[in-house]
Specification:
Blueprint (H helix, E strand, L loop, with lengths): L11 H6 L6 E4 L8 H13 L3 E5 L17 H5 L1 H4 L1 E2 L4 E8 L2 E8 L8 E2 L6 E4 L2 E4 L2 H10 L20 H11 L5 H7 L3 E4 L2 E4 L1 H7 L11 E7 L12 E8 L2 H15 L2 E5 L6 E5 L6
Parallel strand pairs: 1-2
Antiparallel strand pairs: 2-5, 3-6, 4-5, 7-8, 9-10, 11-12, 13-14
């Protein structure tokens, strides 16, 4: 029998027997530290992930408990997603009575455009499979990339030395655009740098495009070509890499050199056209790709 008016898949049997996963979590009264902040952390994790349902008042072994035993403290659990979560996420609280016992179902909708955190300490969580993980600074940044809140290429490279710009490449770029002004102003106009109070700062996009050595500032700013013998990558004694080349420089240089490299490295195959009786040349890897 369906017991939720918001989710027709939720039955009493599901609440008691379903394995906890990315989208479903139980929290019982007897668990350690089951304070409103603990529930808030779990809801934040779901908000930052793919949403889900948290059943409060159902123990891990499926026992239906009674939240009314909390008395006046129950209001803290009713209001925790307003009091403890920032920004206010799309969470519906459903209060259900089962055989005279009260439980809460928190229905959490996914939000792909925002990062949620605790109001009091700004901690950020993410639900991964059946666990809730607190994120460090790097993990938060990765989550911002995933949600497209932050774009890597728009970040400022604060330590960049402008003497490391490839001036010859920049001059070629200016010629292509028929631009006669200052080079740094051109970078600003093309959204590759910013100017504030007369001071220029370059974005990571500008480093990748026009630095002589982008890897000096951005780790792994390179392209790697690996060719295997066969169709499956092997390791150990069956290691089957037959060619491994790395190209390190700015993006225009890499495109130019890799294009020449691939033309020299990849093969052309000839297939007989049975209708014309002629052999047609087919590249191993199309240049457009």
């Amino acid at each position: 029998m369906v017991i939720s008016k918001f989710n027709t898949q939720i039955t009493l049997e599901l609440l008691q027997t379903k394995r906890e996963n990315q989208y479903f979590e139980r929290k019982g009264l007897g668990e350690k530290d089951i304070a409103p902040t603990k529930i808030a952390n779990e809801l934040i994790g779901m908000l930052n992930a793919d949403g889900g349902v948290l059943a409060f008042g159902v123990s891990n072994d499926g026992e239906i408990q009674d939240l009314s035993s909390l008395g006046e403290k129950l209001s803290d659990y009713r209001n925790l997603f307003v009091d403890l979560i920032d920004p206010h996420g799309n969470i519906k609280l459903e209060e259900i009575e089962i055989e005279g016992k009260q439980i809460f179902l928190y229905h959490v909708d996914q939000d792909i455009e925002r990062i949620f955190k605790r109001k009091d300490n700004e901690q950020i969580f993410l639900r991964v499979d059946d666990r809730n993980k607190q994120l460090d600074r790097d993990a938060v940044r990765s989550l911002e990339y995933d949600k497209q809140i932050r774009k890597f290429e728009d970040e400022i490279e604060a330590e960049f030395d402008f003497d490391d710009l490839d001036t010859k490449l920049l001059n070629r770029y200016k010629e292509k655009l028929n631009y006669d002004g200052d080079t740094l102003e051109l970078l600003v106009k093309r959204h590759l740098a910013v100017r504030k109070d007369g001071v220029y700062k370059i974005k990571k996009a500008g480093v990748l495009l026009f630095a002589k050595d982008p890897e000096k500032y951005i780790t792994s700013a390179s392209l790697r070509y690996i060719r295997y013998e066969g169709t499956i990558a092997q390791v150990g004694t069956e290691h089957n890499v037959v060619k491994d080349e790395r190209f390190e420089n700015n993006i225009p240089w890499i495109i130019d050199h890799v294009k020449k490299f691939l033309k020299a490295t990849l093969k052309d195959y000839f297939f007989l056209d049975l209708e014309t009786g002629r052999f047609n040349k087919v590249p191993e890897y199309p240049e457009e790709a």
